[in-house]
Every structure is written in structure tokens, then in C-alpha cells.
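Ticket #4471: structure export looks truncated?
Reporter: QA, pipeline team
Priority: medium

Steps to reproduce: submit the single chain below to the structure queue and open the exported record.
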Amino acid sequence: MHQKGADGTRRAKRWLDSTTRTRASWTNEDTVSAGRLTFNWPYGGQQPFSFDVGGLLFGEPFDRHIFMAEVKNYSNANLGKDYDDFLAKCYCVWRDQPKWSNQFMFLTWNPFRANSWTRLCQAEAITKACVLNRVRLFGEEDEVAAHSLVDPVVVAELEERLWLVVLSEKQ
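Actual output as written to the record:
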């Protein structure tokens, strides 16, 4: 699984570099990233998390925007949970350290949640993901209390910064 994930990260980086107007990009295994893609959860005593790829975009309207991307190069019945975790990570970074990223990308080779695909980058999905990750984000066990801690301003700003990309083996 780790090898397949690393292969996916390299392939996603290559695709981003050739098609998405990246000025520069690096993976979490490159020495140039030097921890730039790694962050701490504010609560819950969890291990730090990292994004797989990061870099700079060029061209309007995203010129000089910093991006971070999560890459999922495997078929997994829990890919929806992985996406929820990704949204919570994006919320955490945008709320606590917005200087580190302007855009957040989720790249996968396997579509998921087909019945709600068009809503996966909307406020409701972000809020739900934050509540699911409430202990790590807010230090709160209670679901109702956690829901009240989700900042709607952060969610609205994040909504405009999410990219969801499905790649094909032929890409």
C-alpha cells in the first residue's frame, strides 16, 4: 500500500507539473519540503499529519498561490472517510496557519460518493468532516457542541479553495 501511495504521489506531481500550471512542486518525501507539508492537530494527542504534494501555481486566477494536495492512488471502500479527514486537515491549516496554503487539492484515481459528488466541496461537507474529526480539531467529544465550534467564515473561505480531481490510469 505504501509503495502504491508513493507511486501515486509521484504520478500526481508529474500530472500537476505538466497540466495545472505549477510554478514549482514537491512531495512530502522531497528534502526541499523540509516539513512544509506537515502540521499538528490542535487537540487529541494525535500524530502530526502531512499532505502528499505541495507547491506554487502560476497563471490567473491562482498566480503565486500555494497549494497542498492529498493523493489517493488506491481503491478503498473508506475513501469517503479519507476525504473527510482531508477536509478536516484543510480546515485546520486554513484556520490556524493560512499563510501556508491558498488552495487545497484532493487527487484520486477512484471516484467516490457519486450521489453527493457535486456537493463534496460545499459548506455542509466541510462542516460534517470537522464534526467527525471534532476531538482532533476542537478537543470536543460532544457532536452538538463540536458543531457549534465550526467557524462558518473559515468554512466559507475554504469552500472557495478546494479542488477535487479524478485522474485516470491513462493520464
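Status: closed, not a bug. The export was complete when the record was re-opened. Leaving a note from the reviewer for reference: The chain has a mean pLDDT of 87.
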